[in-house]
Design brief:
heterodimer; A: mainly alpha; 75% helix; B: MetI-like fold; 2 domains; 12 helices
Chain lengths: 298, 313
């Protein structure tokens, strides 16, 4: 460490008394605040450890390919995995085109009037509506009124409405990132507005839209309450082959096993949580990679 | 195409093609407008559905019973629909989750904004925000099996019930930690440097600058963060349904078994209530209450954030 100038001259500039105390408190505060910041991270690590500790031994190929059962040792995730894939795939099919269409309308076509501000305000508020409210909307409209029953179709429509606001907002941001010069260039060469959007704006915004979409789907993948509201809390011992069938998903199965008193089912829940978290983590990682790639290209 | 051959050379076919393209454009614009309308229709449908069933509910249960009675007992006779036990349950977990999340979240925000090197912040902030991406059913599992069984039971012994508000509140606090920390940090980072430098110039230490200058200047952003966090707790279902119990209970004690508004809604849905029954209608009445509460919290947060932006730009 370098010798301080005041020490060379033999002068002591260190503070004393009240000032010294204030400075000491301030220096110590760094570590207290850092500790608080790390609390959340520590919690994540602790909970991750607990889950792996409890669930790892249950994780096997049989666990992934067996139907649920009254006997914890024989129960598995087969039907909930299949139902999960069905619901999420259809959610993407319903939500993404509408979300991108809404974002394009807002950013590229909408007249700057009251209707536009209404749509924007509405989206911001919808994003804050609790998932269980989407659940009772799905229950009243899709399950009962349209008479779809607690089917894959009803579930995916409900989840599609739930992730719509956040997907629109992410797509809007991605579209706004495309420089105006690209739009002007396309229009100057005689492209129509739609040709400009389709051939120039959308390709440029695609990585951002995909990032937002993947994150939204990862939220749908973890959703439990809305699906229980529409009736996904059921015992399914067959492979789903049509969107009109009843279904269950991995998060709902985790809930099912968690609320049983037997320790063996809790182990199953821990094992299923490992599966769920791996999938969610993979989605978030994919989103992060796409975002970074895109940044480098720019 | 047409422009290349000059204005005189525009053929009839060209004009027709342009007109077709123009019509196509109009059509596409209508489709896009229809997409945008979906979100408006969603809101309208939510309001309509909640309203319709809530009206049927109040045909059977009087307003005064709903808002003045204190007992919520829909499943056993004599039935009673006093909402306050469920509201108290929700308030209970809101208060106790904030007791944990507010100091820790604010401390994290102060550290990230005022103390951390840019590189540290770049690493820590995304990790903290990852807590928001964990599905809440996972937190629900932890609240029941890890927090209650392994931590709270050994500490409190028989004083704490197996299903209790505290275990749920602790995991709710973990859930809202990123909301509080991240939004507060944004607000603190937006405080102009001049304010900090003026305080340093007067001899304030780093901690004093953070607490006496930055926090007050960013207060509206912090309040907005807390309101959004409260809205998330109020609307959260899985954690409270699994860990907090299903006993409507007019208490703010964290050691007792309670039931929140969301917890009740999920319980009825699990029981598969038939349409037209009072049970089925009651989840819409409680849902209306929930919807109005979260909407007001979100609007309040937005209003406060917008005011705050005007102050420094």
């Amino acid at each position: 460490m370098a010798v301080r100038a005041d020490e060379v001259r033999g002068i002591r500039l260190a503070s004393t008394g009240r000032v010294a105390r204030r400075q000491a408190v301030s220096r110590a505060s760094r570590y207290v605040l850092l500790a608080a910041t790390l609390t959340g991270v520590a919690m994540l690590v602790y909970l991750g450890y607990e889950t792996v500790d409890r669930g790892w031994s249950r994780l096997s190929w049989d666990f992934l390919t067996s139907y649920p059962s009254r006997f914890a040792e024989r129960a598995g995730l087969r039907s909930s995995l299949i139902g999960w894939v069905w619901v999420l795939a259809l959610t993407v099919v319903f939500a993404i085109p509408i979300a991108i269409g809404t974002a394009i309308w807002i950013e590229e076509f909408a007249p700057r009037n009251k209707l536009l501000s209404l749509v924007k305000l509405n989206l911001a508020n919808l994003a804050g509506v609790p998932s269980i409210i989407y659940g009772i909307l799905g229950l009243a409209v899709f399950v009962r009124f349209l008479d779809l029953g607690p089917s894959i179709l009803a579930g995916s429509l409900t989840l599609a409405l739930m992730i719509l606001p956040m997907t629109v907002i992410a797509s809007q941001e991605a579209i706004r990132q495309v420089p105006p010069s690209i739009r002007q260039g396309a229009l100057a060469l005689g492209a129509t507005r739609w040709q400009m959007v389709w051939h120039h704006v959308l390709p440029g915004a695609m990585p951002g839209i995909m990032t937002g979409t993947i994150l939204a789907v990862s939220r749908a993948a973890g959703e439990t309450a809305a699906l229980i509201m529409i009736g996904a809390f059921t015992f399914i011992a067959y492979d789903n082959t049509s969107p009109f069938e009843d279904f269950t998903t991995v998060p709902v199965q985790i809930y099912n096993w968690t609320i049983r008193p037997q320790e063996a089912f809790r182990q199953n829940a821990a094992a299923a949580i490992i599966v769920l978290m791996v999938v969610i983590f993979a989605m978030n990682l994919a989103a992060a990679i796409i975002r970074e790639r895109f940044r480098q290209q720019q | 195409m047409a422009a290349q051959s000059g204005p005189d050379a525009i053929s009839y076919a060209d004009l027709r093609r342009r007109r077709a393209a123009h019509l196509g454009e109009r059509f596409i614009e209508l489709i896009l407008l229809a997409c945008a309308a979906v979100s408006l229709i969603t809101t309208a449908a939510i309001v309509f559905v909640l309203f319709e069933e809530t009206v049927s509910f109040f045909e059977n249960v009087s307003f005064s019973e709903f808002f003045l009675e204190t007992e919520w007992q829909p499943l056993f006779r004599p039935v009673s629909f006093g909402i306050w036990e469920l509201v108290a349950g929700t308030a209970n977990v809101v208060i106790w989750s904030l007791v944990f999340a507010l100091p820790i979240g604010l401390a994290a925000a102060i550290y990230l904004s005022e103390y951390a090197a840019p590189r540290t912040r770049k690493v820590l902030k995304p990790i903290l925000e990852a807590l928001a991406g964990v599905p809440t059913v996972v937190y629900a599992y932890f609240a029941l099996t890890v927090i209650t069984q392994d931590v709270l039971r050994p500490i409190f012994g028989q004083d704490i019930q197996f299903f209790n508000a505290l275990g749920a509140s602790i995991m709710l606090a973990v859930m809202i930690l990123p909301t509080i920390a991240s939004i507060s940090e944004d607000a603190m980072s937006n405080v102009p440097r001049e304010l900090r430098e003026a305080a340093y110039g007067l001899g304030a230490t780093r901690l004093e600058v953070a607490i006496r200058v930055v926090v007050p200047a960013a207060l509206s952003g912090i309040v907005a963060a807390v309101l959004l966090a409260i809205a998330r707790v109020v609307g959260e279902t899985m954690i409270v349904a699994v860990a907090a119990g299903s006993t409507p209970n007019l208490t703010l004690s964290p050691l007792e078994s309670i039931q929140t508004m969301t917890g009740y809604m999920l319980q009825v849905a699990l029981g598969d209530a038939a349409r037209g029954t009072i049970d089925y209608q009651s989840i819409f009445a409680v849902g209306s209450m929930l919807f109005v509460m979260t909407l007001m919290l979100n609007i309040a947060a937005t209003v406060i954030v917008n005011r705050f932006r005007e102050a420094y730009e």
